[in-house]
Specification:
It is found in: Secreted. One of its GO terms (cellular component) is extracellular region. This is C1q-related factor. The strands form 2 sheets. A 5-stranded antiparallel beta sheet has the order 1-2-7-4-5, with no helix packed on it. A 3-stranded antiparallel beta sheet has the order 6-3-8, with no helix packed on it. The protein is elongated and about 45 Å long. 0% of the residues lie in helices and 47% in strands. The protein has one domain: Jelly Rolls. The chain is mainly β and 119 residues long. A hairpin with a 4-residue loop joins β1 and β2. The termini are far apart.
């Protein structure tokens, strides 16, 4: 069960060029300043529940994503994308929002990606 404002770590890491993402803490730390694209996708497990997630830059919410499944749609998906200009040392993470209706996530179907598009 995710708790409100809990950082959601994406621990099944396939690629980590530049080693900026820490799968244990769920935090990406910028090593190279520039413009980045971040995308995250969440799938929840329980029918009738919803989960709002936020992408956070240095403690400030900069994007939202809502995953929700109604009674006839037992597993809800939500995806969102943001473009951010980061400085060296900036931190980015995904967290469950305080106003979420508690729901478990299906980790296998969740993902987080970030990549540098311009220096």
């Amino acid at each position: 069960m995710t708790r409100p404002t809990t950082i959601i770590p994406f621990s099944d890491m396939k690629t980590n060029i530049g080693t900026g993402y820490d799968a244990k803490t769920g935090i990406f730390t910028c090593n190279t300043p520039g413009a980045y694209v971040f995308l995250w996708s969440i799938r929840i497990a329980e029918p009738g529940h919803g989960l709002e997630t936020q992408i956070v830059l240095n403690g400030a919410t900069v994007g939202y994503n809502t995953s929700g499944g109604g009674d006839n749609n037992p597993r809800g998906y939500g995806s969102a994308t943001v473009t951010l200009y980061l400085q060296e040392g900036d931190e980015v993470w995904v967290r469950a929002a305080a106003r979420s209706i508690g729901a478990s996530i299906v980790e296998y179907y969740c993902m987080f990606t970030g990549f540098l598009i311009h220096i």
